[in-house]
């Protein structure tokens, strides 16, 4: 009898332990559900590269100080007696165009710098220095203006077909001299004559 009761008590304890274990298992919080996979980011299209600007040849378009349009390369020619080839005249024409652009840019810059309003000048020394700078800029701009007139006169001669002859002797100036100063008006010999006469008058 005693053994039977002991056996019953032992079985009851096991049953209770099993029940408690099941109850504890049922009370545990459920594992959180797995997060849904993130949606794939939409593909971003790269902007198309901008096409490189096409290179353009320097244009001689514009107006000269005499309100005449700058002659085109196809319009220029030398005097028949100047003995200049087509290739030489085209080379000299391009030199004149390049020099005109350079001189015109410098002229505009120097005049602009001379006329611009600077900071308020503090004393007489600053005012005097500013006046000196302005005078220098104006003198430089005036030289550029005179050179611009000579360059455009040479271009006008190319248009009319009179280019390449000395204005004092009507002799060919020569390509080598023109290559150095394509706007020159005189041959070497006549230029030296003018300089000697000028020197005699200044004595």
TrEMBL record:
One of its GO terms (molecular function) is zinc ion binding. Residues 92-157 form the DnaK suppressor protein DksA N-terminal domain. Residues 13-54 have a biased composition (Low complexity). The keyword Zinc-finger applies. It comes from the Bacteria. It holds the Pfam family zf-dskA_traR. The keyword Lipid biosynthesis does not apply. InterPro entries: DksA_N, DnaK_N, Znf_DskA_TraR, Znf_DskA_TraR_CS. Residues 161-188 form the Zinc finger DksA/TraR C4-type domain. Keywords: Metal-binding, Zinc, Zinc-finger. Residues 1-83 are annotated as: Disordered. A zinc finger (dksA C4-type) spans 166-190. Residues 1-11 have a biased composition (Basic and acidic residues). PANTHER family: GENERAL STRESS PROTEIN 16O, RNA POLYMERASE-BINDING TRANSCRIPTION FACTOR DKSA-RELATED. This is C4-type zinc finger protein, DksA/TraR family.
